């Protein structure tokens, strides 16, 4: 506790009054990582597969030259709508999570995203707009190309520092 207090005093003294020692007895014996689900988030950030709330998933494959992200519907089938609507909803959700994962993992370089194929060009544009909108909150320099007829999005992103995976290796 003394080390943390000294660090906060040095870095952000105005936050010193928020500092409180964690007492597992006050939280059913849970450690702080379990209580705040930090282990779960780290495993999610370090793993190859990322589950989406709707039941779909993302698969991250990193190579020396590039990162490829594959979007899968999984068990997400929508609620009575048509297939195009279901795929578009899944891709919109995936676009938001991909941007979050790129920031969290600090992935840079060439990134190719394989969205689920959409028939309507307006839906492809909608997914691309959502992704660019989410990237607008990202501090890093990036460029995004349009969605190809195969549903691929090519982009580049500058890394900010050491990625999460490299920190833990």
Order of helices and strands: HHHEEEHEHEEH
The backbone outline, from C-alpha atoms, is elongated
Determine the fraction of residues in helical runs and give it as a percent range: 25-40%
Taking the alpha carbons of the first and last residues, their distance comes to 27 Å
Give the helices and strands, then pairings.
Layout lengths: L1 H10 L20 H4 L2 H9 L2 E3 L5 E6 L3 E7 L10 H23 L3 E6 L6 H15 L6 E3 L7 E6 L6 H5 L1
Parallel strand pairs: 3-4
Antiparallel strand pairs: 1-2, 2-3, 4-6, 5-6
Helix pairs in contact: 4-5
Tell me what you see in this structure.
With 169 residues, this protein is an alpha+beta fold. The chain folds into two domains: 1-36, no CATH class; 46-168. 39% of the residues lie in helices and 18% in strands. The protein contains six helices and six strands. It has a six-stranded mixed β-sheet with strand order 1-2-3-4-6-5, covered by helices on one side. α4 (83-105) runs parallel beside α5. The longest helix has 23 residues, at 83-105. It is elongated, with a radius of gyration of 20 Å. It starts with a helix and ends with a helix. The relative contact order is 0.12. The mean pLDDT is 86.
């Amino acid at each position: 506790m003394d080390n943390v207090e000294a660090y906060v005093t040095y870095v952000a003294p105005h936050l010193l009054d928020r500092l409180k020692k964690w007492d597992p007895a006050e939280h059913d014996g849970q450690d702080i990582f379990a209580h705040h689900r930090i282990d779960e988030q780290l495993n999610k950030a370090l793993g190859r597969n990322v589950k989406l709330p709707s039941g779909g998933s993302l698969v991250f494959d990193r190579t020396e030259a590039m990162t490829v992200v594959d979007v899968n519907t999984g068990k997400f089938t929508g609620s009575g709508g048509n297939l195009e609507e279901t795929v578009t909803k899944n891709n919109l959700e995936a676009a938001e999570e991909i941007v979050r994962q790129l920031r969290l993992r600090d992935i840079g370089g060439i990134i190719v995203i394989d969205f689920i194929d959409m028939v309507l060009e307006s839906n492809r544009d909608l997914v691309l707009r959502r992704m660019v909108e989410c990237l607008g909150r990202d501090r890093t320099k990036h460029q995004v190309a349009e969605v190809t007829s195969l549903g691929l999005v090519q982009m580049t992103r500058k890394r900010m520092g050491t990625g999460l995976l490299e920190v833990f290796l």
